[in-house]
Design brief:
The complex is a heterodimer of chains A (589) and B (233). Chain A is α/β, with parallel strands linked by helices. Chain A is built from 14 helices and 22 strands. In chain B, helix 4 crosses helix 7. The longest helix of chain B has 20 residues. The chains are: A alpha/beta (589), B mainly alpha (233). At the A-B interface, helix 3, strand 5, helix 12 and strand 19 of A face helix 6, helix 7 and helix 8 of B.
């Protein structure tokens, strides 16, 4: 029988970005809060210190900061007929582990979705009619508007410490920013970071073609900075160790640099590490949760933590897994289209060019995760879907993030993978190339979804979650469109040679190479309870004291990195709980 | 000229020293210069590999990254020591991976690692099978063949033309991956001896501080590498 802990007002599952935000905001209400973190504790000192953090093998290759599949993983299949197999070693996506979660090891790229993305179904129907929507695409509107979220995006950007140049403040277009961004109420809290040579070359070429380059916005401090919680950041030194690493010098935005030290000072907030939540417990009426049961790693036993309010703030995959295991929302069934939990899993469609220059020097080890310049001229709001034959868009960028040689060694096509030819190739080409990348949207489909696996179990005996996912023609058409649009930019840059990698029709999902840790959906928000698992405040439709945070709420994936929207939704939810829910706990919609 | 296995490449060492002195004016670290030479690879006592396996690993990595031409080969970089140590660690034992059955080792390669074996078990299982194939096809165990036949054998292995049990099918890809890891990882893991591979390509290792270098477009960064333990080259 499980040990029982003293009841709390709030239990938070997971202490990454959203857990830290909700913890801080609700701690200000004087509530008694405990956060349960599956992984270990970690902080800039001692865990991310120089020089131990500058270790490509340990963190970049052996993935020292990531979730261990032995502890937690899922199974994957590409279609309903295939048997799902376990994701035994990490490849395509890298869920984080420990305090800070993915917010600790990310690259720092921070965006607000484009205006067209909030009401995308309506945008399509109004402009081209529902007839252009593929039969199996489950295209949806968000139940929340940009206007409702804007103050929360601004708040997250100020808390997280985002560097960038605004392109549209209250409708006024500003030179040097993104002219296609949705109007913002205020500029970024810090100016944009300087770019390396590759980004500057790209920006010049894009401009010469009449496009609109702007410095890529990100959670990398360009100056010293103090946020509203009193947390300090120091200017980045472009060390080239962002993604897969913790930042050794307080420059990358993370729960550690932006929130946690301030949160730890709150006497009504505490957290426990080595505490893996196994399920959310339900009241007999079936309408509310009573708390969570977790596995205490140190004591090697199950513990029941009662609470009035349950916040699921784990990574998207784990939130959905917990919902499926706990009976939050009816599981989605692709055969009938009924059910909500696990519905509309989506990903990201990326591609890119590599340009080689024998006589130019890029020093690729000088970089940040949000380095360089982007264009949004082919963003989702700029494209005539009816003419082009797809629904979606992409932002296009150049800016080196690292030159770590085990993983970052672009070589011209035809260079041998080993032997004398490879050795000659690395000498000739290391530091002599740049890339241009397309980061594209991903729509939701009937057969891309999450449920429980019938065969494989985790170490606690729980069924693993099962992902059914494959690429669809719509995204391939989108990415091939980007390939055609980038080519003139690449040609204007006059490389000695260039090559590209974009998905082609019929290409199957390959779980091995790293693609992106932008897993979305499965706990989508919706106007009505039959369409999604949570309402516009990320409140479970069928359990009003359970709130589900994060990218699981995305109805389909946007063309951007998800953190900006995740942060904006978290502050939106925090405000709803503070101003509407606490005084009168009930379904808010 | 090929430098002796186990000894730092004299050629690369001289080159690195000259470059460092000429471009930065920094003295070469006394520590790097006076470090005890490590045990030569042919006298090294592997922790994981048996003598027959060790002979294979020395010979195979020497073809994957040969010693000829500019820069260190796998032997000068002491890549085999790195691989031996990795086999004894968490990677070799698949300590972080989900290894529960049922397994489907003959699944489409797109579906990732599906063998019930750990990386160390794959080396252990595959080396004798590959050596036997070399014996049958080329008339000698891999290490006994000349360089051209070794390259032909490795190419056959890479292309899947050597009949390996499905549980061993990832052998070539992990051998090549681990060889490159040992070439480029921090020297504290046993390979990249003297940071020769970093010096060769111009990666500055753990320097990780480039703020003033961001606006210096198209200018080669002049400083040689440093390691996590503070060695310089």
């Amino acid at each position: 029988m499980a040990r029982q802990e003293k009841k709390k007002d709030v239990v938070i599952v997971g202490l990454g970005w959203t857990g830290s935000i909700i913890g801080m905001e609700l701690a200000q209400e004087g509530l008694e809060i405990v956060a349960l973190e599956r992984g270990h504790d970690q902080d800039t000192v001692p865990n991310f210190q120089y020089p131990q953090m500058i270790d490509e093998l340990k963190y970049g290759v052996r993935l020292g900061m990531m979730q261990k599949p032995r502890q937690s993983t899922l199974t994957i299949r590409r279609n309903l007929e295939e048997s799902a197999l376990p994701y035994r070693s990490l490849g395509s996506f890298l869920p984080g582990n420990g305090v800070g979660g993915a917010g600790t090891h990310w690259n720092g790229l921070n965006w607000r979705p484009m205006l067209a993305e909030y009401k995308l179904r309506s945008h399509v129907e109004q402009n081209w009619g529902a007839g252009i929507i593929p039969e199996d695409m489950q295209l949806m509107d968000y139940p929340v508007t940009y206007e409702e979220l804007e103050p929360h995006f601004a708040r997250f950007e100020r808390v997280a410490g985002i560097s960038g140049n605004a392109g549209n403040i209250n409708g006024q277009i500003i030179e040097g920013g993104n002219p296609f961004e949705a109007p913002r109420s205020s500029d970024y809290p810090m100016p944009a970071m300087p770019s390396t040579y590759d980004g500057a070359k790209f920006a010049e070429a894009a401009k010469s073609l009449g496009l609109h380059p702007f410095a890529r916005p990100g959670g990398i401090a360009s100056t010293s900075y103090v946020n509203e919680y009193g947390m300090q950041m120091g200017p980045c030194n472009h060390c080239g160790f962002c993604e897969r690493y913790g930042c050794y010098q307080y420059s990358k935005s993370s729960p550690q640099t932006a929130i946690l030290d301030a949160l730890r000072k709150k006497p009504n907030f505490s957290y426990r590490t080595g505490a893996e939540v196994l399920r959310v417990e339900m009241a007999e009426d079936g309408k509310t949760a009573t708390g969570v049961t977790y596995y205490d790693e140190a004591a090697q036993e199950e513990v029941f933590q009662p609470a009035d309010l349950v916040i699921l703030a784990a990574y998207q995959l784990h939130n959905v897994h917990l919902m499926l295991l706990s009976g939050i929302g009816q599981p989605y069934d692709p055969r009938t289209g009924q059910g909500v939990t696990g519905k509309n899993y989506a990903y990201q469609m990326n591609g890119g060019y590599t340009l080689f220059y024998e006589n130019e020097v890029f020093n690729p080890f000088i970089g940040t995760g949000a380095n360089g310049f982007s264009i949004d001229d082919y963003g989702i709001g700029q494209i005539d879907f009816g003419t082009e034959g797809f629904i979606g868009g992409s932002y296009i960028s150049s800016g080196q993030s690292n030159g770590q040689p085990i993983r970052s060694m672009p070589l011209p096509a035809g260079t041998p993978a080993w032997g004398q030819g490879w050795k000659d190739g690395i000498k000739k080409w290391y530091g002599h190339s740049m890339s241009i990348g397309s980061h594209g949207s991903h729509m939701a489909y009937r057969n891309n979804y999450l449920d429980l696996d019938p065969t494989y179990k985790d170490r606690h005996g729980r069924p693993l979650m099962r992902m059914t996912f494959n690429w669809h023609d719509n995204e391939v058409r989108m990415t091939q469109f980007m390939r055609e649009k980038i080519r003139p930019i690449a040609e204007a840059l006059k490389p000695d040679s260039m090559q590209d990698a974009f998905k082609k029709q019929g290409q199957m999902y390959d779980v091995r190479p790293y693609q992106t840790t932008h897993n979305t959906g499965g706990a989508i928000m919706s106007e009505t309870p039959d369409q999604g698992a949570v309402n516009k405040f990320s409140q479970a439709w069928d359990k009003h004291n359970v709130f589900v945070m994060g990218a699981g709420n995305f109805v389909q994936n946007t063309q951007y990195n998800p953190t900006g929207l995740v942060g904006g939704l978290a502050y939106h939810t925090a405000q709803a709980i503070r101003t509407q829910y606490l005084s009168n706990p009930r379904p808010l919609v | 000229m090929t430098d002796l296995p186990g000894l730092p490449s004299r050629r690369s060492f001289l080159k690195a020293t000259a470059a460092g002195a000429a471009l930065s004016g920094l003295a070469v670290s006394a520590k790097a210069r006076t470090a005890e030479p490590p045990v030569p690879l042919d006298q090294y006592q592997p922790e994981f590999f048996t003598p027959a396996e060790w002979t294979f690993v020395l010979a195979a990595t020497a073809r994957l990254i040969p010693s000829e031409g500019d820069g260190p080969g796998a032997l000068e970089a002491r890549v085999p020591v790195f691989i031996d140590r990795e086999m004894m660690g968490g990677y070799g034992a698949a300590a972080d991976w989900y290894m529960e059955g049922p397994h489907q080792p003959d699944a489409d390669p797109f579906r990732g690692w599906q063998t019930p074996l750990t990386p160390a078990e794959v080396y252990r299982g595959a080396i004798p099978v590959f050596d036997a194939w070399c014996q049958q096809t080329h008339g000698g165990a891999f290490a006994e063949l000349d360089a051209a036949k070794q390259d032909a054998a490795l190419t056959a292995l890479q292309k899947g033309e050597v009949a390996l049990d499905p549980t061993l099918k990832d052998f070539f890809s992990i051998l090549l991956q681990n060889t490159k890891e040992g070439y480029f990882a921090d020297p504290m893991y046993g390979g990249n001896h003297g940071m020769q591979a970093w010096t060769f390509i111009g990666f500055p290792g753990a320097r990780a501080n480039f703020k003033e270098w961001v606006p210096r477009y198209n200018v080669e960064y002049p400083l040689g590498p440093v390691s996590i333990k503070g060695e310089r080259a």
